[in-house]
Amino acid sequence: MLGFLLIIVTTVSIIGYAEIDYVSNQAYNQNYQRMESYAETLGELASSQSQNGTAELSTDFLNKLQFVLRGDDVHFRIFNAKNEQIYPATRNRIQLSDRVLSTLKRGEQIRIRNNNLQRSYIGRTKDAYTGVLVPWMNGTKMIGVIWIGSLVKNVEKPIYMAKRNLLNALMVTIIVGLILSFILSYYSTTKIKSLSRATKKVAAGDFNVQIKNKGNDEIDQLAENFNRMVRTLKKSDEEIKAQEKRRDQFMADAAHEMRTPLTTINGILEGLQYDAIPEDSKPKSIALMRHETTRLIRLVNENLDYEKIRNNQIMLLKTKFDAVKVLKDVQTQLRQNAQKANDELVLDVPATLPTYADRDRFTQIIVNLVQNAIQFTHDGRITISGKRIDHGTEFQIKDNGIGMNKEQTKYIFERFFKADPSRARLGTGESGLGLAIVSSLVKQHGGKVKVESEEGKGSIFTVILYDKGFEQFVNKKDD
After folding, report:
1. Distance in angstroms (rounded) separating the CA atoms of residues 189 and 294
2. Which CATH code fits 219-306?
C-alpha cells in the first residue's frame, strides 16, 4: 500500500513542481513584457520631445500618468542621460551604478525579479517590486533611463493560486491514493495469503490443494503454476506410494520365498542329523534340498542381475544371428512348465529370422516373457511369434490367460510389481523382477517393449530389436 501511495504522491509532486515553475515563469515574463511596453511607449514620447540630447517629459504629464498606473500598483522612475533621477523629484541623490549604466548605454534592458531579494539596481523599497530598467535611445545615444515595475505580490497571485490548487490536489490525491492503494493491496495480499495457506498445506502433505484463479495478472499466473506443481507432486507422491507398496510386497514375498526353502532344508538337515530319515528316502530328501537351494540362488541372482542391468553394469555382445533356433530352444526348455499348467506352447516363425542383439540376453528376454505368460495362463494357448520389420525384428508373446486392466499394464514393467500376486506360483517369476529385467534389457539394446492386455482375454507382449546402426536413430526420433 505504501509503495502504491509513494508512486502516486511522487508523480503528483513532480507534475506540480513543473506546473508551478511554468506558471511562475509565465507570470513574470508577462509582467516584464507589460512593463517593457509601457517603458518603450514613454521612451518614444520622450525621444520626440528631447532637447539637447536629454529626455523631456513634463512633470504634470508624469504625475497624471503615475496616478493612472497607481491603480495597477505600477510605479516608475526616470533618469536623465547624466544618471540623475529627474522623476519623481528627491532630495537624495540617487544614481545607477557605472556597470548598470554601461549596460544600458549599449541599449540592453535589465530585468529585476525582486528588488528586495536579489542585487538591487534601484535600491530597496518598503514593498518588493519586480520590473525593468529600459534605456531611451535616440539613435545610438542614450537620452534617458526609466525604471518601471509593479508589486511582486500582484505578480505572484496566480502563482499562489497554483500552489493552493496543487496543495488541494495533493491532499485529494493522497486520500484517493490511500483508498486505491488499500484496495489494490488488499486484492494482491489476499491472493498472496491464499498462496501462503496452500503452500503450508502442501508442506504438511496435502496434495489436493488447488487455488482458484482467473489468469488476469502475474499472481494468477503464479497460482496456476502452483496448481500445476501440486498436481505433479501429487502424481509423484502417488507413484512413490505405489513403489513403496510394491517394495513392501516384494520384501514380504521374498521373505516368504526364502523362508519356505530354508525351513525345508533345515528340516531335512535335522532329520539327517538325528537319523530320522529312512535310508531309502535320503536321496529324495537330498534332491529336495538341492531344489530348494537352487530356488534361493535364483532369487538372489535375479536381484543382482536386475541391479547390474539397471545401472548399465553389463556388457552387451551384440551380433547378428538367426533367432528361430533360440526360440525353438526356449520352446523346448519351457514346454514342461507349460504342460504342468495344461498350456499349449506354440511357435509361429518364418524359416529364418535375422536378429541383431546379445544372444544370451535375448534368450533371457524371451524366457522371462514366456515364463510370465505360463504363470498367468491355465488351460490355454501361448504363442511365440516373430517377423522382420523395417530395420529390425519384432517378437510377440501372446497368451489367453487372465489378462490385466489398464492400471496394471501401466506398472507391469516396474520393479517388484505383480499383476496378480495371489495367482503367482513358485518357480515361475514370483520375485516380480522378470518383466523389469526385460524392459531394462530391451532399452539397453536400443529397442522397444510394450504390452496390450484385456482382463479375462489375455495379453500380448511385443519386443522390437533394431538392426545395427538404427538403435540410436530410432530412439532419438521417438523422443
Report:
1. 68
2. 1.10.287.130
CB-based burial of residue 152 (10 Å sphere; 0-12 exposed, 13-18 middle, 19+ buried)?
Answer: buried
CA distance 378 to 337: 11
2 torsion bin: left (phi>0), alpha (psi -120 to 50), beta (else) = alpha
CATH code of 314-478, in short, is 3.30.565.10
Cell 523382477 found at: 433
Phi and psi at residue 78, to the nearest 5°: -130, 135
Output the CA–CA distances (angstroms, integers) from residue 73 to 97, 130, 259, in the order listed.
26, 11, 119
What is the rounded end-to-end Cα distance, in angstroms, of the chain?
A: 49
* Structure-block grid coordinates of residue 454: 484385456
- CA distances for 3 relative to 9, 179, 182, 310, angstroms: 10, 13, 11, 56
Domain ranges for the chain, please list them. Answer: 2-159, 219-306, 314-478
**Residue position matching grid coordinates 496390450:** 452
Q: pLDDT per position in the chain (479 positions), as tens?
A: 677 778 877 888 888 888 888 888 998 999 999 999 988 888 888 777 666 656 567 788 888 888 888 878 888 888 888 888 888 887 776 778 888 888 888 889 988 888 887 565 666 778 888 889 999 888 788 888 999 999 988 888 888 888 888 888 888 878 887 788 788 778 778 888 888 888 888 888 888 888 887 767 787 888 888 888 988 888 888 888 877 877 777 677 667 767 777 888 888 888 888 888 888 888 888 888 888 888 778 777 766 776 677 666 677 889 999 999 999 999 999 999 899 989 999 999 999 999 999 999 899 899 999 999 998 999 999 999 999 999 999 999 999 999 888 888 887 887 656 655 554 443 444 556 788 888 888 988 999 999 999 888 899 999 999 999 887 544 444 43
2-159 carries CATH number 3.30.450.20:
yes
